[in-house]
Amino acid sequence: MNKLYVGNLSPSVTVEDLKQLFGERKLPVADQVLLKSGYAFVDFPDQNSAIKAIETLSGKVELHGKVIEVDYSVPKKLRSRKIQIRNIPPHLQWEVLDGLLAQYGTVENLEQVNTDTETAVVNVTYATKEEAKVAIEKLTGHQFEDYSFKVSYIVDMDAAPPDQAPRTRRGGRSSRDHGASQPGPSGEFGPPRPRQHDFPLRILVPTQFVGAIIGKEGLTIKNVTKQTQSKVDIHRKENAGAAEKPITIHSTPEGCSSACRMILDIMQKEANETKTTEDIPLKILAHNSLVGRLIGKEGRNLKKIEEETGTKITISSLQDLTIYNPERTITVKGSLEACCKAEAEIMKKLREAYENDIAAINQQANLIPGLNLNALGIFSSGLPVLPPAAGPRGAVPAVAPAGYNPFLSHSSHLGGLYGVPPASAITHQHSVCCRKSAP
After folding, report:
1. Which of 310, 341, 358 is the last residue before a domain boundary?
2. d(CA 339, CA 259)
3. What is the pLDDT of residues 57-86, one digit of tens each?
4. What residues pair up with 66 in beta bridges, in sequence order?
5. Full domain range(s) for residue 241
6. End-to-end CA gap in the chain
7. Model confidence pLDDT, tens digit, residues 113-162
8. Of 305, 228, 287, 308, which Cα lies nearest the Cα of 263?
9. Backbone angles phi, psi at 348, to 5 degrees
């Protein structure tokens, strides 16, 4: 993935010229620079430096009188379902981006790339080669506010011929298997965003602690995300004047728990410094349809968690639910350690319920071969469990929320909480992008 194509080169450009250019921009180029007539191929050690090279040089730097072009070098046989989108506004809501991507096909995997750039970068895997091609054509140059999307193919090893395809991991599962991890920037398997298993932790925190959680210039929350390998969204601008703000944590179950622990610890330290005497309980948000299975018959599941963790757990009343706020608040009181243990057990039960709903929907879909529930509009193709663009806790969204994917049983009892804005809410600028590849 980290081989770059450098095009529109003057015939007088040498390998030394290219290496000097990269050195001046502090770009760590590998030794191999293959110079051809009018273009070159350059290997970079990792995805982050490759992205930096593209963002820094392409269309911005003149070499021997010609403005150079830089992009991924992807052989045609490996141009298939995977694309990379760069220059995404850092404040763009995930469900807005996901709704945009879903207009061009079924997105099997969406993962954010950790980079040093101010804007966001994501790798997207579509269900088919054709869908990826359409997405590149439609999204290249797409304008969102003052940002213009940049889109490229990235290497799809699943598209390689059988003799070149990578060996499957133990058990015969390939990287296209349900929920399989995708290689990270250096070939390591980092925290991906497999759509079927992304079940984030949502918590409520007192508004007065939001500043401490974010930290000066965002350093505290950056440290949390880095240490726990998670994506943390603090919805601080929503519900102005509210006593509490929701936080959404995307990661593995362990990553979510680690981030939650760090946030609780930050709040406790802030409370001690400000001499706040009240204990700070852990408040977890969960959709009402999942809560019954958390409680269990005659409250047995909840009682067991309380006994094993030494906590007191209460759940908000059904009367607090509205069509725009179908979440219930699970309040956990106890020591920091006890609350963290309870969080892990509570989320385990909620994830089990969520995955059961996913399995039930997949089974229903398989009853009619070829039926595309996304195309019919029955289920949103959006990322699972994402907060709406406005009003996650009671405020009425500006646009009526769309149906949410796995939770549409019992006359849409989960529909709408994490919906995707309609296509009409997003403007587009379409153009076609052509890429050159290594021979």
Report:
1. 358
2. 13
3. 888 899 999 999 998 888 877 788 999 999
4. 63
5. 201-358
6. 15
7. 877 778 888 999 999 999 999 999 999 999 888 889 999 998 876 655 54
8. 228
9. -60, -45
